[in-house]
Amino acid sequence: MNYPNGSMSDPSLYVKLPMREKNERQIGQLFWVPCPLTSSSTFTLRIGSWKAGMDIKDAKLEVKKVHRPEDIGRLSDGLHADLSRMVIPELDLDSSADLIVGKVKRRPAVLIYKDCHNLRKFAGIESGIQGGASFPNKHVFAPIYSLRKEENLDSSFPEKFIQNVKDHKYPNIVFLPSYATLLKNDSMLVLSEMFVLSINVVSPLDYCIDPTAFSVYLETFNSAIVDEICLLQGKLDASSQTK
Predict the structure, then answer these.
(1) What is the pTM of this model?
(2) Cα separations (Å) of 10 from 16, 65, 90, 133, 215?
């Protein structure tokens, strides 16, 4: 894959957006977001102790570890279905859902896809069942992580890894050089860790990644995925021929 000349190592990688384009939100634009921090375990928050007649606000909460997908939606012992999931009534949890306890961190991220709709409403409008218009309510982002931190060198990534990122060794990782107040440290955009957020909890920044360069990064990542799929297809074809 041929990368745009100079775009990996100098500020020309970043393009300042006019106000209108900034507010319209663009693919490749940088945002501040509450980025979810993935841990090795998943935990649910439920009502752990409650008796009839007790004010629900006095109920004790408990955190339970999820060991398998089937644990989601299972009742805590001795609790009525409605009560075990009413920790936050506004969430309207049903019998197949749970409240997950997780961590988020404010960090920069890049917009990957912006037109995510409420699919029930979108399907109704597209099918002519209901009127009105459907507007995007979620965006897809990829997170940005600092490679080096001047204020905490112990948390920096190894130099060998940083050089590999600069040399485009990993199709899922894009090197982002530091630039003024936009990115204080040399960083990496990790395309393989995309996540979805409500459009109301993110803050757009004035800059986007150069569109030509960003299209190359996405094409490289997509090609790596397609290669994996083709490899699997080859294995399946070879297996079917030996039967």
Answers:
(1) 0.82
(2) 14, 45, 47, 42, 18
